[in-house]
Design a protein that fits this description.
By secondary structure, the protein is an alpha+beta fold. The chain has 3 helices and 6 strands.
Length: about 130
């Protein structure tokens, strides 16, 4: 299994329901791309990322509809095994580090440390 990408997606079922952000791990296994929703332990596959994600969205739709029909909403959240969460977090951390380096090279490196020390900081919620 080769980890490819960690992404967050939302699934919509018509205009009736939109999921919160879901954690999806994309891996390459036996020549196909596997898409795992770590929040629901639902997975699917395809020849490429787009096909795997489309198939995953259909699988999540069926998973949600079945849970609603069976009145089993309390069982809806069924997180994936911790090894998949670790893979997701490692990929997401790498992506964050790359983004961090890019943002530094575009802005902070243009200023001297003395100028930076005088600048105020602020907090925004992402």
């Amino acid at each position: 299994m080769n980890a490819l990408k960690a992404i967050r997606i939302k699934i919509s079922i018509g205009d009736c329901w939109e999921s919160p952000a879901l954690h999806v791990l994309l891996t390459k296994e036996d020549g196909v791309v596997v898409a795992r929703c770590l929040d629901f332990t639902v997975l699917s596959h395809g020849e490429n990322e787009k096909d795997a994600l489309k198939s995953l969205s259909d699988a999540i739709k069926e998973y949600v509809i079945t849970s609603v029909e069976d009145s089993k909403l309390e069982n809806l959240n069924d997180p994936a095994h911790s090894k998949y969460w670790r893979m997701f977090n490692e990929l997401e951390t790498r992506k964050l580090n790359q983004s961090f380096k890019r943002s530094l090279s575009k802005s902070i490196l243009l200023k001297t440390p003395k100028k930076l020390a005088k600048l105020p900081t602020s907090i925004t919620y992402a």
